[in-house]
């Protein structure tokens, strides 16, 4: 019953392919059950509706906090990355090498795949895992080794079933992301890159755009990019520009959405920096903070996307439950009317049988 509601109420393709069935959202299949069974089914659907409605409200309450964390954290992480990239560009022009910015021939790549810990959120977890698996296949075709750092229970269970994907570590999320959670991942990435076990580190996560739009992206984490923007493996910028920001409000006793637009301020002038200390020492000291901020940003974006996906899935399931209840009520009333009509006909027939024949 619950899985039927989550798939828009369509039971299976074999049923839909039947030529004599009407093409509606909830096809009216011939019900062989009695009135009591239909009534029990209506009660079951109503109970499921209450559960999905509660899950939608819980996700809506949590997404506000997650959304604010994403919006408030982006300016710092982006400005911090821009400063480090400017320092790195100056150092490279002076032929100064820093371990975490060294660009060497790529033989092995580490993928940090961030998924959720829970299901019932549509295709959120599957889309991230599929994108990571496609990236692994792409690297293997190029003759490049790949190791996965899986973050999230759903991603862990996904990669455990696929023996052809090498997994370095499984990490579970613990509620809202914190700097301590990001530090665990950053330390693992740091050790892999500095020891030259991998030559490149990429983040695979879901970028939060709005409550109805979130896209899985691949972001290069190490080595530090020479440019002032963060690009994915295809050269497309994944910086947050012009994202839609939805505020949850109440209207007529129901949840409503108020749309705002957050625009990123562009700075065409490159700042002139003067360093009292050696820029290489500054970069070495700030790179761990850079790793932590970028990983924390990815965790926050992924959590906000997961909550938005769950709220949308539970909203659709609730709507399906309401529509299915209406259709079952129609069938119940018809069966009840047919039963009452049959009983009346039996009473009339019995009365006619007792009437004396003149």
Automatic annotation (TrEMBL):
Subcellular location, principal: plastid
Gene Ontology process terms (BP): regulation of root morphogenesis
Cellular component, GO, one term: chloroplast thylakoid membrane
Pfam family, one: ATP-synt
Keywords, comma-separated and alphabetical: ATP synthesis, CF(1), Hydrogen ion transport, Ion transport, Membrane, Transport
One Gene Ontology molecular-function label: enzyme regulator activity
CDD domains in alphabetical order: F1-ATPase_gamma
Basic residues bias spans: 15-25
Topology in the lipid bilayer: Peripheral membrane protein
Extent of Polar residues compositional bias: 1-11
Annotated compartments: Plastid, Chloroplast thylakoid membrane
Keyword Cytoplasm: no
Region (Disordered): 1-25
HAMAP family: ATP_synth_gamma_bact
NCBIfam families per the UniProt record, alphabetical: ATPsyn_F1gamma, PRK05621.1-2
Function per UniProt: Produces ATP from ADP in the presence of a proton gradient across the membrane. The gamma chain is believed to be important in regulating ATPase activity and the flow of protons through the CF(0) complex.
Similarity comment: Belongs to the ATPase gamma chain family.
Protein name: ATP synthase gamma chain, chloroplastic
Record lineage: Eukaryota, Viridiplantae, Streptophyta, Embryophyta, Tracheophyta
């Amino acid at each position: 019953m619950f899985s039927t509601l989550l798939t828009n109420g369509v039971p299976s393709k074999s049923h839909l392919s039947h030529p004599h069935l009407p093409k509606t959202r909830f096809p009216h299949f011939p019900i062989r059950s009695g009135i009591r069974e239909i009534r029990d089914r209506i009660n079951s659907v109503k109970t499921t509706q209450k559960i999905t409605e509660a899950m939608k409200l819980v996700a809506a309450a949590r997404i506000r906090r997650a959304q604010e964390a994403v919006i408030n954290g982006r300016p710092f992480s982006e400005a911090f990355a821009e400063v480090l990239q400017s320092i790195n560009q100056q150092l490279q022009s002076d032929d100064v090498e820093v371990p975490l910015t060294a660009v060497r021939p790529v033989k092995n790549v580490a993928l940090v795949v961030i998924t959720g810990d829970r299901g019932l959120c549509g295709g959120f977890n599957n889309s991230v895992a599929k994108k990571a698996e496609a990236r692994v296949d792409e690297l293997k075709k190029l003759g490049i080794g790949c190791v996965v750092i899986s973050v999230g229970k759903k991603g862990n269970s996904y990669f455990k079933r696929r023996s052809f994907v090498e997994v370095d570590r499984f990490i579970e999320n613990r509620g809202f992301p914190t700097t301590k959670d990001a530090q665990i991942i950053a330390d693992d990435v740091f050790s892999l890159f500095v020891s030259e076990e991998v030559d490149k580190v990429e983040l695979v996560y879901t970028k939060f755009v709005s409550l109805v739009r979130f896209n899985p992206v691949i972001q290069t984490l190490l080595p530090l990019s020479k440019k002032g923007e963060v690009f994915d493996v295809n050269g497309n910028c994944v910086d947050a520009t012009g994202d839609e920001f939805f505020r949850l409000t109440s209207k007529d006793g129901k949840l409503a959405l108020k749309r705002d637009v957050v625009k990123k301020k562009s700075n065409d002038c490159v700042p002139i920096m003067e360093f009292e200390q050696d820029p290489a020492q500054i970069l070495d000291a700030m790179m761990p903070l850079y790793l932590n901020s970028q990983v924390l940003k990815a965790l926050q974006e992924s959590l906000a996307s997961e909550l938005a996906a769950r709220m949308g899935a539970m909203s659709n399931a609730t709507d399906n439950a309401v529509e299915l209840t209406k259709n079952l009520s129609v069938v119940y009333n018809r069966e009840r009317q047919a039963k009452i009509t049959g009983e009346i006909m039996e009473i009339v027939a019995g009365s006619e049988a007792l009437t004396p024949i003149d």
